[in-house]
Structures are given as structure tokens and as C-alpha cells.
Amino acid sequence: MLKAYLTIDDSPSPYTDTLIDFLAERNIPAILFCRGDRMAENPQAIIRAIEKGMVIANHSYSHCPAGELSYEEIISEIEKTEKLIDECYQKAAVARPGKYFRFPYIDKGDGDRLERRFGEITGDIETASLFGDDKVRQIQDYLKAEGFTQPFEKLTHPLYKNKAVARAADCLFTYSSCDWMLTRRHQGQFDYKSLDDLKCKIDDDPWLCREGEGAQIVLFHDQPEIGQVAIALITHMLDKGFEFLSVT
Asked: What is the 3-state secondary structure of 181-223?
């Protein structure tokens, strides 16, 4: 059995309703890591997503890399977004299942954008020294004190053999769809230049497509420009026999 947790960054967008309808029609659970600035402009899309069974999580307020912000600014970004998430759950009349956070670009505060170099760090990940400066540790202490956790279970990717990753309060991923590479501003600049390329990436990933009891965390993006790309790739995963797991 192929198993994965579906996580989607950057919600809400003008495409959110379409994406949520697709997921709900197929009984696919997902965690939406939401930007606070976009929630403030379009809370109804997130309220509707909650009503459709999706889990809402924090992706900071302005999507600014944490390495470019002070500790105080990062905490403010998290707390402003938390307030909006709580309000959406209240308006949806649904109990919030937990508090989850993902850093934009997976920059945990030291300026290292791990999302872009994910493939580089997996070779010696068990012993790699990651996320070690004082600001990073201070943010982690804050997140843990505020009750943020990772909701994923039975992760088999070598990334989670690194103690700093496994014990972190923020949510990472173990597979990036790289759907963002097909946006107009990125098109042709990176390794994957077409939808077929991204489907082959899924097919060829040794951990994502490994049969067994373990699960992976897959990352997509909620952006109108690539909305159909995300849906096509999720459909491709369904066709391969993936089961998408709920965190609730």
C-alpha cells in the first residue's frame, strides 16, 4: 500500500474552492498551510474548506522567509495567523484538531531555504547538523510552548531519522511535487519543465513509491496558475494506488 499525507501551501487563493471541491468529491483529506494575509482577504474560502473536512494550519502571515525577520517579527506573523485560523474554525462551528505550522520556503530562521535544496540534504541526513543557530532554537521553543506539533505518523523517509527533524515542532515534508516550477516566472528555469516531467518525478521517487506500512508527506501549492497541475498530479497519485491519510 502506498500512503501519503497531502499538504497544500499558500491557501487561500482564487482557486481554493475548485481545489477543495476536487478533494472533497474524492474523499481526500488535506492540510492547508494558510497565509494570514490571504486569509484576511478571503476567510470564506477557508471556512468552506473546514466545512468540507480539511485541516487548516499556519504558514505565517506574509510568507516572508523567517531568516529575513527578527524573532519578534516571526512570532507576530505566527500569532496574527493563529487568530485568523481560530476565527475561521469558530465560524465553521468545527473543533480545531490541533496547531500545525510550516515555515515559508522551509526557512526555519537561519536563512537556509531547505525547500529549494531538499535533494541535497538527504544523503547524510541522519547525521547532518541542521537548524542549529540560536534564533532557530528560540523559535522552536516558542512553537513547542504554544502547543504546535507534527501530526504525522509512521514516517519512513530518512529525513525523519534526523533527531532535529523528528523532534521539531514545525511540519516539514518528505516529497515536493515541485508544481511551482510550472508557474510562468519559474517555467523552464529548473529541472522539471512539464506536467509529464512532474508525473515521472512521482514515478521515480524511491521513497514516495515504496510499498509498505510507512507514509510520506507530499507538498503541493494552492495557486491559480498551477491549480490544474496540482489536481492532475494528485489524480496521478490516485491512479498509482495512493491512499491519502487523515491527521484527525
From this structure: HHCCCCCCCCCCCCHHHHHHHHHHCCCCCCCCCCEEEEEEECC
Please name the amino acid found at residue 64. Answer: C
**Among 151, 147, 113, 156, which residue's Cα sits nearest to residue 30?**
151
Q: Is the peptide bond before 12 cis (omega within 30 degrees of 0)?
A: yes
Domain ranges of the chain: 2-244
The CATH number of domain 2-244, selected from 1.10.287.370, 3.30.530.20, 3.20.20.370, 3.40.50.150 = 3.20.20.370
Cβ atoms of 74 and 139 closer than 8 Å:
yes
Q: Is 169 helix (H, G, I), strand (E, B) or coil?
A: coil
| Locus of grid cell 480539511 | 54
Contact 148, 176 (CB under 8 A): no
Of 32, 1, 5, 2, residue with least CA distance to 205: 2
34: three-class secondary structure by DSSP: strand
Rounded Cα gap, residues 122 and 89, in angstroms = 36
Give the pLDDT confidence of 186-204 residue by residue, as tens digits.
999 988 999 999 999 999 9
**What is the pLDDT at residue 248?**
73
Taking only the tens place, the pLDDT of each residue in 3-47 is 999 999 999 999 999 999 999 999 999 999 999 999 999 999 999
Residue 123 pLDDT exceeds 90:
no
175 conformational bin, left if phi > 0, alpha if psi -120 to 50, beta if neither: beta
For 2, 17, 157, the CA distances from 218, given in Å and listed in that order, are: 12, 20, 12
